[in-house]
Design brief:
Strand order of the largest sheet: 6-8-7-9-10-11-12-13
Number of helices: 16
Oligomer: single chain
Largest sheet: 8 strands, mixed
Order of helices and strands: HEHEHHEHEHEHHHHEHHEEHHEEEHEEH
Helix content: 40-55%
Number of strands: 13
Strand content: 15-25%
Radius of gyration: 23 Å
């Protein structure tokens, strides 16, 4: 794997904790978003910048190498063998990719972290959110820090191809995929096959196998249904009714569980509603957004490629990429596309394809104007000519995505 393109947004964050051996560094996120790539770049940094000797670094990819280890004891023996051969006057750096592939991994990781005989800095990756949190909370008791790795941001896309920021390149980005491996492929068929393989890996390995799912077709149809309806409000009851129209009969409990499993793999994200006036979460209904719109672009052929919902999805990912907790806003029964919170900061956002009429202007700007606080309020659109309205900022979406929030 060539390491020429540095994902500095993540590398800077993770390397800030380098040599803090009290904390296990945990990279989480959907499969094939380059978690292992980033770990290998950390290895490269240790070798080239910190001049760490190669024998003091061990990288194990359990998704590829798990057949080498019959059990936990064999993996433990391998790791300790490398530590014995290392320069014991220097720190040892251990990287384990897709650590969940081996049962009992959490006890092994904890044993290295807690053993005073080892001077070891630990890095692991994982592709399931909730299981990771519960297992690590049990065995590491807060002695870890998580970094969620997402698909390529728009800034990374521009950097990868060395493009200038133009509306044309923005539209290419949003109508392709944000999984970087696809950028090496020229043929449409290759891209479709790659994304199908990714979808199957997530559904079959991370959900069906882990949760012993019997209704595999229903699970996949739920994913495709949500992919084709990003940015729409749904209750579980309404999803059950929609699926019934597609001759998929199920119940609220099963549908809720399956959506929860999909969310745990990071392939989709559910967004709760937030009452801006009452400052509380509104239960029952959620919107869903994709981790990568490539699934929509290549698998939902009837979808409008220029839909504003896809712009919403991109803005949602951008906000999460920058560490915001994101909600769908509600004030006086009017919708605010996003209420984003980070620390004491709040940002209100409306996303539109174009401010092309008085009706759209009223919906996008006046909804925000009803929020009577002093936090930043923005309308984002594809309009090349933008005009602010009173204290509400109007900005090109492709400009917003390349600036600090």
């Amino acid at each position: 794997m060539r390491l020429w393109f540095k994902r500095t947004f993540y590398l800077d964050k993770i390397c800030a904790y380098l040599d803090n051996t009290d904390l296990v560094k945990v990279l989480i996120g959907q499969r094939r978003v380059w978690k292992s790539y980033i770990m290998k770049q950390i290895v490269d940094y240790l070798l080239t910048e910190k001049k760490i000797q190669p024998q003091n670094i061990l990288f194990i990819n359990l998704e590829i190498d798990f057949l080498k280890y019959k059990d936990l004891q064999e993996l433990d023996s391998t790791i300790k063998g490398h530590i014995e051969k290392s320069n014991k006057s220097s720190r040892f750096y251990l990287f384990i990719d897709e650590v969940q592939e081996l049962n009992g991994w959490e006890k092994l990781i904890n044993s290295y972290r807690a053993n005073d005989l080892f001077d070891i800095d630990l890095f692991i990756t994982w592709s399931n959110a909730t299981l990771l949190s519960s297992d690590l909370s049990t065995y590491l008791a807060g002695r870890y820090i998580e970094f969620e790795i997402m698909p390529f941001s728009y800034n990374e896309y521009l950097g990868y191809f060395q493009f200038k920021n133009t509306k044309e390149h923005f539209l290419e980005y949003i109508n392709l995929s944000w999984i970087p491996e696809l950028y090496k492929m020229d043929q449409e068929e290759s891209k479709i096959n790659y994304l199908k393989s990714l979808k199957d890996s997530i559904i079959l390995k991370d959900i069906v196998k882990r949760y012993n799912i019997k209704e595999i077709d229903l699970l996949e149809r739920i994913f495709l249904f949500l992919s084709g309806n990003i940015g729409n409000l749904f209750s579980l009851n309404s999803i059950v009714k929609k699926l019934k129209w597609l001759n998929l009969v199920s119940n609220v409990t099963t549908i809720g569980n399956y959506i929860n499993y999909l969310e745990k793999t990071f392939i989709i994200h559910g967004v709760e509603r937030y009452d801006v006036k009452g400052k509380k979460i509104l239960e029952w209904e959620k919107k869903y957004y994709l981790n990568d719109v490539g699934f929509l672009n290549f698998f939902v052929s009837s979808y409008d490629l220029w839909s504003g919902k896809k712009l919403e999805n991109l803005v949602y990912n951008h906000l999460r990429h920058h560490g915001y907790k994101v909600y769908v806003g509600n004030i006086w029964n009017l919708e605010i596309d996003f209420v984003a919170e980070k620390g004491k900061e709040i940002l209100y956002l409306q996303v539109a394809y174009s401010i092309s009429s008085e009706e759209v202007f009223a919906r996008e700007f006046w909804n925000l104007a009803k929020i009577k606080d002093n936090y930043k309020k923005m309308v984002l659109s594809l309009d090349e000519i933008v005009n602010d309205y009173e204290w509400i900022i109007h900005q090109n979406i492709w400009v917003f995505l390349t600036k600090d929030i």
